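Hey,
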Amino acid sequence: MTDFYKVSGGGNDFLALAEPDGTPPPERIRAWCRRGVSVGADGLFILRRAGTAAAMVIMDYYNADGFPADLCLNGTRCAAQLAFHLGWAEEAVEVRTGAGPIAARRLDSERVRLELEAPGTPQALTVEGVESGGIGCAGFRLRVGVPHFVLVWDDLDRAPVRELGSALRRHQAFEPEGTNVNFVRYPEEHRMEIRTFERGVEDETLACGTGVLACVAVGLAAGRLALPVRALTRGGFEMDVEAAPGGRWRFGGDARVVAEGALLPPAAVEPVPPAWM
């Protein structure tokens, strides 16, 4: 039996383990995160206290496929909110991630704001050999802790997120680690809308925090956006991105602890897909 918390950040949902005895193997994380046959989640993180000298926690993040990723910003906000919920910190905490430390501040029981380095400069890239409906794939690549590819897509309702996202995610242009694929629309100078196909989940998710920052960086570079920006995700939540001193950015949004319980042995059952799948 494994104690866990269920948390959600802008529609990204996660399983969280607070100071467990060990790290679950990839196959167990994958089974727990599988929807329909277990609890289900976009990923899992392990949260540990870093010491008593300061409000600081360590977050190890794993995608739904069971493998680690350096950064998940919606997960980072949720990790901070869980630290506040557990009484490990009061109003502010530093979350140590695989991409470096990130400062977090509690706005209320449902929102957390992060402060972190602004992304680098997006690089224009045309991906050859991948099309959808005759439309080529000219976009922008950049890294926000994890790799992203951004496509500006005005008809967001009809964007082929699963089909084109899946094709691009493992394209040779992004070898060896692959990429997350974002479809973004910029309707106003201070507003954007985003859909994301997430690597490691291998499907569209309701939100992607690093994807939001990647798309803001592209919008700024293209002259389509100006800070502050409100970003609307597929889950219906809005996230805020604004400038901070020293060229840094603040990133605020939904982060909630929604349940706690125990993972029982049957939660780790991973059935074999039928032969026709």
